[in-house]
Amino acid sequence: MDCVICRNGKTEQGFVTFSLEREGVIIVFKNVPAMVCQNCGDFYLTEETTTRLLEKASKTVEKGVEFEIINFKTAA
User: Fold this and answer.
1) Other CB atoms closer than 10 Å to residue 52's CB: what's the count?
2) In this structure, what is the dihedral angle of CA atoms 52, 65, 69, 57, given to the nearest 10 degrees?
3) N or C, which terminus of the chain has less Cβ within 10 Å?
4) Which domains does the chain have, with CATH numbers?
5) What is the pLDDT along the chain (76 residues), one digit of tens a residue?
């Protein structure tokens, strides 16, 4: 797939670190599968991966922590 950001690179399957803030909680996801542009580094997540990230983020917020690092590869 061509990168829509830089328009010069091609994407390849890889892994990224993705962080988000939700309700004052910072969550860092490591080893998230994504299509990564080999030119600019921008990445694209599948709908399934995005759904899993949001589900895990909701569970993390419910725990009441302020910051958490989750290894996406090994997280159930």
Assistant:
1) 17
2) 10
3) C
4) 11-71 (3.10.20)
5) 888 899 899 999 999 999 999 889 999 999 999 999 999 999 999 999 999 999 999 999 999 999 999 999 887 6
